[in-house]
Design brief:
Number of helices: 3
Structural class: alpha+beta
Helix content: 25-40%
CATH topology: Alpha-D-Glucose-1,6-Bisphosphate, Chain A, domain 4
Shape: globular
CATH architecture: 2-Layer Sandwich
Number of domains: 1
Largest sheet: 7 strands, antiparallel
Distance between the termini: 37 Å
Mean pLDDT: 96
Low-confidence stretches: none
Radius of gyration: 15 Å
Strand content: 35-45%
Number of strands: 7
Strand order of the largest sheet: 1-7-6-5-4-3-2
CATH superfamily: START domain
Length: about 150
Amino acid sequence: MQDVIRESTFVGAPIDRVWRAISDYREFGTWFRVNIDRPFAAGAQSTGMMTVPGYEHVPWNVDVVAIEPPHRLAFHWHPYAIDPDKDYSHEPRTLVEFLLSERDGGTEITVTETGFSAIPEGRRDEAFRMNSQGWAAQVKNVAQYVAG
């Protein structure tokens, strides 16, 4: 079983601009397609609702672990927790990290999600598969958002 999802992309924009797109909750919400209630704060919960068509019923509940400008934003969440009739609160969470580095006149964006081996076996493979697809799309979304 794979435990880590890693997606990277390069964007020809300064790291400060990319950092703002990642760390400002309104900008993050625009490209990620989530309506987040308040600014990200390390050690605090971030809540809201997804705005992706067909997934508007899915709550956004993450615990922000770290905000380290302009290089790292990290949070814990329940991966692919989309069933409105299921209580995921007792399940282990994965760690999502956005890592930014300056490179060749732009910024390398790397997103990693770790901890799938602790997810209950009955939904582990689907959560890994769906989040793998999701992060592949989201790194493109943030790159297009910053470039646009």
